[in-house]
Structure to design on (135 residues):
């Protein structure tokens, strides 16, 4: 079953992501949902997930526009959000945008370039797009 994100807003998406991360990652996942600027942190987790340990930062990005426009917005978000990293080992962006394989590859290359630029090449990066979230 797919979720028609056009029927929802960013607040619903954030609650959905918080529930997903609490179930998928750990009950120790710490969500942040207070109004105001979050500094690029919608959730934190310290521990082991998917065979990797360390400090995890999660940021959700909800875009309610045409898919291509939403992808371009997400592409602009990636370097901005990476610049906000502190001492995390892993960074995951969750997005309602459906990505094509070449777009996901482009986001990874963009992230690697920005991580290298700010001397954080050891930080792992991932995007959980619409398809990944539905899985």
């Amino acid at each position: 079953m797919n979720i028609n994100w056009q029927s929802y807003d960013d607040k619903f998406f954030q609650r959905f992501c918080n529930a997903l991360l609490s179930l998928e990652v750990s009950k120790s996942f710490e969500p942040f949902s207070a109004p105001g600027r979050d500094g690029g942190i919608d959730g934190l987790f310290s521990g082991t997930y998917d065979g990797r340990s360390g400090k995890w930062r999660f940021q959700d990005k909800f875009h309610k526009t045409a898919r291509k426009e939403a992808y371009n917005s997400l592409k602009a978000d990636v370097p901005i959000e990476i610049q906000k990293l502190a001492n995390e080992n892993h960074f995951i962006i969750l997005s309602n945008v459906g990505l094509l394989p070449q777009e996901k590859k482009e986001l990874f290359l963009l992230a690697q370039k920005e991580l290298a630029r700010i001397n954080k090449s050891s930080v792992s990066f991932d995007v959980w797009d619409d398809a990944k979230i539905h899985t």
Remarks:
- The CA atoms of residues 60 and 94 lie 5 Å apart.
- The mean pLDDT is 89.
- The chain is about 40% helix and 20% strand.
